[in-house]
Design brief:
Oligomer: homotetramer
CATH class of the largest domain in chain A: Mainly Beta
CATH architecture of the largest domain in chain A: Sandwich
Radius of gyration of chain A: 29 Å
Largest sheet of chain A: 5 strands, mixed
Shape of chain A: elongated
Structural class of chain A: alpha+beta
Number of domains of chain A: 2
Number of helices of chain A: 6
Order of helices and strands of chain A: EHHHEHEHEEEEEEEHEEEEEEE
Number of strands of chain A: 17
CATH superfamily of the largest domain in chain A: G protein-activated inward rectifier potassium channel 1
Largest interface: A-B, 71 and 65 residues
Chain lengths: 309, 309, 309, 309
């Protein structure tokens, strides 16, 4: 599979001349999608599941207030005489008490100090408690879905390096699992994207999948240095530091793994662009054996590299 | 695997002479299934999960009304004297109030203005609240299951084209992800089905899997043009436009992908039949670079193609 | 992989001389597991998820009655004076009312006609309502887990046949999807198990994986005839009807598929033993084209076969 | 793939000189992770899902008590005059009753004997019932997530053996499914780790993946003896008992399987270190045929082995 060139990696060859990176360090894509109306591309699930928790909680709270303000108005419209236990005399007081009754109905707490007596209020309360239960059914799924969603927390070394590797050189970066849960059968995929000048003088971005010394590791409890050997099959073979930087390279990284806690497949993405790839450096060791004979890994030093002669 | 012929692709060779398409544009199958009683093929899960939302909500509402009408009748049959707080004098009024009490019990709102005092009413209420909680348990799963069900929204170009491709020609169609969520490891599978006249003059439909230039793409953030090269291994090699249309061809498409938001595998299906495949056309570019250097994709133009000389 | 012999297919070679079938028609195994205490092999999840619905509902009901009988006794022990609204004079009446109060607390319906006033009753009620909510949390998962559990309903033809196939003969059986939901990427695996007499005259059961004409089908909307060609690589090559039956053969079948509704992988198992494999028969066609040109499949005729000359 | 040496199996070659086992018998790793702050590596999901049940229940209970103590204080601060039905005269009595009201609000049982009348108390109660419902939403997911989490219960034989195997010798261990649920497509992976002295006299730990006679079994209803044949491709070829023990070997085992009840992939891990591997022993048979012709497996004897001459 080495040394094959693709115009199109599901990325489109025109992404070519772009001057900004395609894939951000955090794994999101730098692409503007145009031409589709909101409802066509918007996914409620995706939005609600990836919202930060503080926004999510605020959204829940606002929804709760809005619904009760609405149902309070409904009870007021039907007439507060349909509710027993309302004590307010002004409309404002009555509306406030109707809202309180609404919260007690919507959450099904139903104290009963205020209770529906009229037919209209009874019907409204019957549907509000149904709406409440279905809303909380939805919220139950949402709260749990957010919490139990498997997201791989992979630490990628902040730089990739090009350094001597066995008798040749290699492109390398280092990864580790930030969390304590087990990742199993971790698989790496590396794609090089760079600008090339074709025969007719046009400059276009090309994509090359890169061969790896090892594509998968079974256990991933310590760290893993992913290595692309720069041999005669590599598109980087014979490329100098200057030539590489001149081609505005971006190394797109995808990691697949099986998360043993969630029993699901997870992914992590990142990219290294231009000067994030450093020449003549190698990663410092971060694994040692403690005084009690136990293996230790220093995860804060995963980014550290040092010069090689 | 090229140029192999299958009588049977899990589709059955007799699907052969059918004059209507096998696979609809929306991915559903055009097949009538006979001979099994309702309960054998009916899947409640499948039905409830794929019902449109407005029908689903109506179903919930009707079920709620029916259950309360039933339990209201139960309380009436036991005797309203078993309930405290019933004020109606006519049977109709009492039934209505019994229904209201039922809704308060079923949803566990339990205001208590009407409350069970007799043994019979207490027993009925005890079981109604149990039934209510189990029903809402079920509804919780159903509402969330519907919302969180992964469904790939893939845009397929409205036409496939047969156009020059490198030094030969190719059968091509274009796909993109309609939603903003990430699809990873997208894989395409294309099967050609066409009528053929065998040696004894009988006309039957044959199925051929088609080789693709690329079967998978790792990232799928822009668009992907799936290409079947019409080389000497292709069943379309040397076939003219007239011959192709004459054979009533149907190109069956299956896309598999991993949805990064749902952490699940998803599928999309479609087919191109006869004149949906156009000759001598190529797809217009839809990817460009914005003024700020960012890559842009115009998803509304994914169907656009233009003549090639 | 053809013609390899395995002593052990995860089945163990001593399963060898067994006179009863290893795998039942319904896919369950005919094996007695001994030597482990109940708690070691019992899986509560597996039990509760595969219980028939009527037993499951009965279990829920009994649990509900038991819990309320228990908490009723607790309130009685604390003293009914701790509860307001208890009207009974005899202990039996008071116990019954305490049970009713318990049901209202456990389900959180909380009418309030009977309500805790004493400290002891209040504490007991606080924990009963907590227990109630957690129980229903569990029941919610259970009810939904049972309903949404993906189970493939595959119809296997009641007989397998050995019949002419192309220029040789083949071992064949037919499968179809009983449900209307889509199964995708269906894969079949067939293992032959039979008694053989080794050199030293000992009779033992051997297992052979059988090659298939096609191992997978992408779409599975109609029926699929799985074929093992009996060529020179087959352990059935040259075996007569008498010899086959004499070896007490059992053909173990496993089908894997991806269920598009559940977005999960599902399995189905069955076996054909001795005379369930018939010689000189072929399956009758069950696919035809309706008057409107639509493809039809008659699923009730999937078992039908007829003699071939 | 045989006889390849890896410095790094996602384990890191420096794990090398460690004097304690890398992988415990129960499948957990013996590695100390340093340098990351608590919030970076801590996964709430992982913690709450793998907590023992008694700790989990205690946590729920403590959370419940704490929340109600807090909200009780809130009602006290707002003023008990905002609540109807409070009968206590001392602050302690009032606080206790406020706590009881809080439990009735948080669980939504809402008896109503104590009920909010003041605006402040009403607002507090409205938010407490919302908080209660969301908490129980979370608890619902958690209780069910814990119960329905697929965990493979695999019995590994307490020793591995090195014994004659066909015409050579083999490294073998035996596994069985402890539970009654079906595991399908079970796959084994064995890695040898041992100390080696390199040319310059430095002692370092090396890792070798071991070839297996069979890597996968389709059915896993009885037991499976996993065999690594010690042929000329094996790193154990020609190694004596003394040499093996001297190299402080650790055999790392990973089993993957598909759990048919949970419809999910599961894993089990273990390791055999130094003297846990015994020479010249073979496993005793544990499969037999009962008097009724049914196959039987004695799971308590899975660890039993006996000498071979």
């Amino acid at each position: 599979m080495a040394n094959r060139r693709f115009e199109d990696l599901g990325i489109g060859s025109k992404a070519a001349e772009s001057r900004v990176r395609l894939l951000n360090r955090d794994g999101s894509f730098n692409v503007r999608r145009k031409g589709l109306p909101f409802f066509a591309w918007f996914s409620g699930y995706h939005y609600l599941i990836s919202l930060p928790w503080w926004k999510f909680n605020l959204l829940i709270l606002l929804t709760y207030v809005t619904i009760n303000a609405f149902f309070g108005a409904v009870y007021l419209a039907i007439g507060v005489s349909g509710l027993s236990g309302i004590e307010g005399h002004t409309v404002a007081e009555q509306y406030l008490q109707a809202i309180f009754f609404s919260t007690q109905t919507f959450t099904t707490v139903g104290f009963g100090r205020i209770a529906p007596v009229g037919t209209g209020a009874n019907i409204a309360a019957a549907f509000e408690s149904l709406a409440g239960l279905l809303s909380f059914a939805f919220a139950t799924g949402l709260v749990w879905g957010r919490f139990s969603r498997p997201v791989a927390k992979i630490i990628f070394s902040s730089n990739a390096v090009i350094a001597p590797y066995e008798r040749i050189t290699g492109f390398m970066f280092r990864v580790a699992n930030q969390r304590k849960n087990q990742l199993i059968d971790v698989e790496a995929e590396v794609t090089l994207s760079r600008l090339e000048t074709s025969g007719d003088g046009k400059r276009a971005r090309k994509f090359y999948p890169l061969d790896l010394e090892r594509r998968t590791v079974t256990f991933f409890h310590l760290s893993w240095t992913v290595v692309h050997p720069i041999d005669e099959h590599s598109p980087l073979f014979g490329v100098t530091e200057e030539q590489l930087y001149g081609s505005e390279p971006e190394f797109l990284i995808l990691l697949r793994a099986f998360d043993d806690t969630f029993s699901q497949t997870v992914h992590a993405r990142t990219s290294y662009r231009t000067k994030e790839v450093v020449f003549g450096q190698k990663f410092k060791g971060i694994i040692q054996v403690g005084e009690d004979g136990m293996t230790e890994i220093e995860l804060d030093k995963i980014h550290d590299h040092e010069g090689v002669e």
